[in-house]
Amino acid sequence: MGVVWVLNYPLTEGKSAQQIVDELQKRVEGLGAKKSGLFSVDCETYQSVQTITPQRLSHVMHNSEQPASCFCVLDTGTCLVADTLLDVLMLKLKGFYAPRKSAKVECKGQRYEMDDFIVKIGSVLLGQNQTNKGIMVEVEYTPCFVAADCWHLMKEMTAGFMGGCADNCTNHLRSKLDSLYMQTDTIMQYLEHFNNFRKAAVMIQR
Asked: At 149, phi and psi to the nearest 5?
């Protein structure tokens, strides 16, 4: 695993999310990328019961790139890595933690490989009804482990199929540009985007 950059691709008025996904896929295929399967990243958020104060949140996440691992991000910012039995443990802790209603988020779509790059283009699905809320793009540069060392190369490659949209960077990645990149950094980037989608959905409902 190298350095991963997770981006939110804005929806365009007059086009459906699927039309935009199809367009992005054609662009990246035009650069020479080859399909290499599907991917998914999901997040289920649990909140502590009312008897626990202050109320705590735990985000349990899975990434298809690490099928044997399960990630739990605490509201303190700590990211724990465990095996998939963590899902069973959360069910046994239902007297202390309960899943938030309509809070499940998933990003899934097509995975591509192109020389030293891996590109993933996915739709963001929110809630039990799996409502499509947006598009996310993940770009990984596999030979490098420090984002600052390959940042300009990644931006140039990403701009080749995303244009001016390839300019947004999560706060988490920005704070880690000079650090050794870890698999938990990818999870933290996804969580930051997922929380933004959830907030936007709440604002629309209001």
From this structure: -75, -20
